[in-house]
Amino acid sequence: MHSYTLLAPAKINLYLEIVGDRPDGFHELVMVMQTVALCDRITLRPNGLQEFRLFCHHPLVPQDSSNLAHRAATLMAREFPRIFANYGGIDISIDKYIPVAAGLAGGSTNAAAVLVGIDLIWELGLTRPELETLAARLGSDTSFCVTGGTVICTGRGEILDPIAPLTGLWVILAKYDHLSVSTPWAYQSYRQKFQDTYLSSPEEFHHRRQQVSSGALVQAIAQKKPAAIGKFIHNDLEKVVLPEFTLVAELRQVLGDLGGLGTMMSGSGPTVFTLCSSQEVAETIVKEAREILVAPDLQFWIAPITDTGIQVT
Ligand SMILES: C[C@@](CO)(OP(=O)(O)O)[C@H](O)COP(=O)(O)OP(=O)(O)OC[C@H]1O[C@@H](n2ccc(N)nc2=O)[C@H](O)[C@@H]1O
Ligand SMILES: Nc1ncnc2c1ncn2[C@@H]1O[C@H](COP(=O)(O)OP(=O)(O)O)[C@@H](O)[C@H]1O
């Protein structure tokens, strides 16, 4: 049996609109998700035991069965008990490069990589849609992470409509090390503040989804117009996160003022991203931002936008 090393990339949300409440307690969303080439490295080694073991040295990442990567492995064992009994367990090692609890889907992409990797190790031959359906049981963002690219994500986030890939752009990611935002908190706060604007029927959800599919951002992506893409990015969760996390609001303002195509918070934050036309532009903006915002724990990453999801190396 082979060992595999996989690269699991982060995502940003180019668009995140909260459309309404769902009967399952989650929110109905319309999002445009985009893969970014900032990757965690996941190594999977068959261990000959009847258990999964997880190794990760990041202080904020759980090392036990609550880790999303471990949960993905357990899900596979439950789905394929006889194959698990034959092939045995796997040691999962995670080298973390994606910042944690940052709105970049770090845990979800690790889980997606484990599904893809176990499919290979156990020679299951699962199709992409089958892997995406399994992934949806682990989290709202996990199905997207299986495939990656540029995708309209609706429902809880698990209904995927891939669109023309967005390539040739670069992104700056900026995050204060000491800040993290709880995703449930962000959604609950949004509900408390904006519930009176929510749509509620499946017909209204469908209509809104159609509007976004044919709307300004998706058109700009299809026509490969970087300036328009930067203009039409949007995130409803900024309305609750920015007033509460003033450092994030300031960071967003400073990066936005320094140029780039557009600046926005990703997901539930607190990472702020700036889309740039080139690596050089991104480097210049980061240099200038570091001169304005003198904070030892403010970190920047520069990475290309990519249409490559989980990669087996
Ligand atoms: C906000 C987003 C945007 O892409 O990403 P992150 O900022 O976490 O990366 C996602 O919606 C997060 O997706 P994910 O991180 O997979 O969340 P889940 O584990 O499924 O849900 C965490 C919690 O978020 C809330 N939640 C999530 C998705 C959704 N459509 N409606 C919700 O209300 C629920 O309170 C849920 O308990
Ligand atoms: N493999 C994992 N990598 C990162 N975080 C994980 C993982 N498994 C569980 N977590 C937990 O999930 C929570 C959300 O982290 P993460 O997935 O990085 O952020 P986000 O949901 O904002 O994209 C954190 O509290 C973290 O401890």
From TrEMBL:
SUPFAM superfamilies: GHMP Kinase, C-terminal domain (SSF55060), Ribosomal protein S5 domain 2-like (SSF54211). The active site is at 11, 141. Pathway: Isoprenoid biosynthesis; isopentenyl diphosphate biosynthesis via DXP pathway; isopentenyl diphosphate from 1-deoxy-D-xylulose 5-phosphate: step 3/6. Its EC number is 2.7.1.148. Residues 218-291 form the GHMP kinase C-terminal domain. ATP binds at residues 99-109. Catalyzes the phosphorylation of the position 2 hydroxy group of 4-diphosphocytidyl-2C-methyl-D-erythritol. Belongs to the GHMP kinase family. IspE subfamily. NCBIfam families: ispE. PANTHER family: 4-DIPHOSPHOCYTIDYL-2-C-METHYL-D-ERYTHRITOL KINASE, CHLOROPLASTIC (PTHR43527:SF2). This is 4-diphosphocytidyl-2-C-methyl-D-erythritol kinase. It comes from Microcystis flos-aquae FACHB-1344.
